[in-house]
Specification:
The chain is an alpha+beta fold. Strand 32 and strand 33 form a beta hairpin. Helix 1 packs antiparallel against helix 3. The longest helix is centred in the N-terminal third of the chain and has 28 residues.
């Protein structure tokens, strides 16, 4: 036969003195002397060990509303051992309990209101836990459910012993009364002291008399009425009014619900089906569980998921980490000042900077580039900072052009023809020679012949063609050289001119007849009179190129810039076979260029053979550097009024028609503290190139007026 100790089973349970964590324990009806619970107490997650001077009691309410108040055992390692007694397991169903801990059993005091206090000590109790007693297949009819107050019984035993002692003392006093009236009177006082403690006979008689112990036993019994009482299962809408429920009434709510102002934690918290609620001492409903999350969804989704959820970028409405953002809409504002884009900046910042450049360029004129439009009678000049500036044309300059009726060059030609055909009388000619024809003269060796001129004066002789890719630094021999066209000029090294063909003259620059005293003079094939020179320094080579006056200036009026205009070292305005362009160069060699490219307009950056930029095409499209067309973007807002548990719709018209059917996204803008706005869903439907329909789905019980923000892109 098995030893009875082998049939005893023990369940280890962790319980906290602070955090509310619902604990459910399962036991079987009618089991006796076999089931034990070993509690380890925690204080906010830290182990709370009891000592031998402490005492503990279990307060336990059965499904039939009868109670149990038994003393527990404190183990040598500071834990609490609870036996599930016959009465605790006599009635099947849901049983609520907690553990009451007192620093010393002798310090327990119960006041007239039924509240447990301690004398010169402290009291604390654990959070509630549940014991679910499973019904046995057969009833034990001899076992009836009743109150079980073992701790109270122990106290009654002590009270009974004291009362018996008082009676014995009273009888002794009565017998002795015949011997001595004085002695009888003293015994009477002593009897009264042990019975009710009303005399001043013994020390501490106010808390050490039969009446006191009886009242304490009664108070402890009545104090058990504050335990939780299971009242059955109800739907949330059928839950009794808080004012109609008694303290400790507990209901199991069979459906999912959201708390109201009758709840301890306030309104707006959602709980799942099966949650237990009970009425607290201060008149509120409270839940035997923490606030739970019942569903999860992404911002781009309309319904909630349950279980283990993996939210993707599509669910949230975001761009994947390695995704294509070419169709992503961007909201940005124009930058306050012009600045170059920088590596690592967001697309919002870059587009804001580009918008500032385009805005300033669109508002400017060719003379100021990034300023206000030119007024009348202005010319372009280079100011002291190397910037393009506007200068007025004064009356003094205009006087030089008085009388011109057409091309100045044609009028000069006409003047030459007039001089050839013009005649004067001999007497009108002044400073004429004394005789005519003049005195004889000869053509001797004092004059150069044509052959001598061609061979001796290199500036007049035929020019040699400069081959493609040549280095002008290697041209040190006296003579004439030519680059025949712009394409050839662009291939040359150390060449200051690439806008057209040119003539290069290597000539002597000092009065010395020998030595390396020479320089180069470059004259472009252009309408403007431009010369660019540099000198050769022995041992150092050629100096930097320098453009001569007046080639540094544009014509006062009627002129046209051909080739390139360099403003300082960093700005270059020039034309090429495709059109005109403006180039801005950084000290590191990178440059931004605005280019009238055939019938399109481009803005691009080039550095280390890498090009990034944008283009406005002839058809009005905005293309980025990868060839992608940037999206058309429009946005707006509309406030809809929607009733409780209703759907409202509003058709809107886009400010401008799209080129096709756009993508439209809608959301809610709100700063309200009304949590019912969390049950609103914004959506769109019936999208065309000109209109769409905004929809608002209100799942709350209030009529609301959300502000719907929408954005459309194509």
């Amino acid at each position: 036969m098995k030893n009875m100790n082998e049939l005893r089973i023990m369940k280890n349970i962790d319980i906290d003195l602070y955090h509310k964590k619902y604990i459910a324990i399962t036991a079987k009806q009618y089991d006796i002397n076999s089931r034990y619970l070993l509690f380890t107490c925690y204080n906010q997650g830290n182990v709370f060990f009891l000592n031998s001077s402490n005492c503990a009691f279990i307060r336990y309410r059965k499904p039939d509303d009868l109670g149990v108040f038994n003393q527990c055992t404190i183990t040598s390692d500071g834990k609490i051992l609870v036996e599930l007694t016959e009465q605790m397991l006599s009635c099947p169903g849901h049983c609520d309990a907690d553990i009451l801990i007192v620093d010393n059993e002798e310090n327990i005091i119960v006041n007239d209101g039924g509240n447990i206090q301690v004398k010169d000590g402290c009291i604390i109790s654990t959070m509630n836990f549940c014991i679910n007693v499973i019904e046995a297949p057969l009833e034990h009819s001899e076992i009836e459910s009743s109150y079980e107050f073992n701790a109270l019984n122990d106290l009654i035993v002590k009270t009974t012993k004291d009362y018996t002692y008082v009676i014995d003392q009273a009888k002794a006093s009565e017998n002795a009364a015949s011997d001595s009236a004085d002695r009888s009177y003293n015994y009477a006082l002593q009897s009264q002291s042990y019975a009710m403690g009303t005399g001043d006979v013994r020390q501490d008689e106010a808390v050490n008399n039969a009446k006191y112990f009886y009242e304490q036993s009664k108070i402890i019994s009545e104090s058990l009425s504050g335990a939780l009482r299971p009242m059955g299962t109800k739907k949330f809408e059928d839950l009794v009014l808080i004012t109609d429920a008694a303290e400790g009434d507990m209901y199991n709510v069979s459906d999912e619900f959201m708390t109201t102002s009758d709840f301890k934690e306030g309104p707006g918290y959602r709980y799942p089906a099966g949650t237990n609620v009970y009425k607290t001492a201060d008149g509120y409903w409270d839940c035997l569980a923490g606030t739970l999350v019942t569903g999860v969804k992404g911002d781009a989704e309309a319904t909630y998921h349950k279980g283990n959820i993996n939210l993707t970028s599509d669910d949230i409405g975001a761009v994947a980490k390695a995704g294509d953002s070419s169709n992503t809409t961007v909201t940005f504002s124009q930058a306050l000042s012009r600045a170059n884009v920088a590596n690592g900046e967001s697309l919002k910042i870059i587009l804001g900077k580009i918008m500032k450049w385009f805005s300033d360029i669109a508002n400017g004129a060719a003379g100021t580039l990034l300023g206000s439009n030119l007024t009348s009678s202005k010319v372009l000049v280079s100011d002291a900072n190397g910037k393009v500036a506007a200068s007025p044309v004064t009356s003094a300059e205009l006087e030089y052009l008085v009388g011109t009726t057409g091309s100045i060059q044609n009028q000069f030609g006409q003047l030459s023809d007039n001089l050839k055909s013009h005649t004067h009388s001999w007497s009108a000619i002044q400073s004429k020679p004394g005789t005519f024809p003049p005195s004889g003269h000869t053509h001797d060796d004092r004059y150069y012949t044509k052959s001598e001129t061609n061979n001796g004066y290199y500036s007049l002789k035929d020019a040699a063609e400069i081959p493609a890719g040549a280095d002008l630094n290697s041209y040190t021999g006296f003579g004439n050289y030519v680059s025949t066209n712009e394409a050839r000029s662009r291939t040359l090294k150390n060449c200051p001119w690439t806008g057209s063909g040119f003539k290069l003259i290597v000539e002597r620059i000092t009065g010395d007849t020998t030595g390396d005293y020479f320089g180069q003079r470059l004259i472009p094939n252009a309408e403007e009179c431009i010369e660019i020179i540099r000198h050769y320094v022995t041992g150092k080579g050629y100096t930097a190129w320098k453009r001569l006056t007046p080639g540094e200036y544009l014509p006062l009026s009627g002129g046209k810039l051909t080739g390139a205009l360099n403003v300082g070292d960093k700005v270059n305005i020039r034309t090429d076979g495709e059109g005109g362009n403006l180039r801005l160069t950084s000290p590191q060699g990178a440059y931004w260029e605005m280019d009238a490219h055939n019938e399109d307009f481009r803005l691009y950056r080039q550095y280390n053979n890498s090009i990034f930029g944008f283009a406005f095409t002839k058809g009005g499209k905005f293309i980025d550097g990868r060839g992608f067309e940037l999206p058309q973007i429009q946005r707006g807002s509309y406030t809809l009024n929607v009733g409780a548990n209703s759907i409202a719709e509003q058709k809107i018209t886009f400010p401008k028609s799209f080129s096709g059917t756009p993508t439209v996204v809608a959301g809610i803008y709100s700063t309200t503290t009304n949590t019912n706005y969390g049950q609103i869903i914004a959506a769109v439907k019936d999208i065309t190139s000109t209109t769409c329909v905004l929809r608002v789905i209100n799942r709350s019980s209030d009529a609301l007026s959300p502000n719907i923000q929408w954005i459309a892109t194509f």
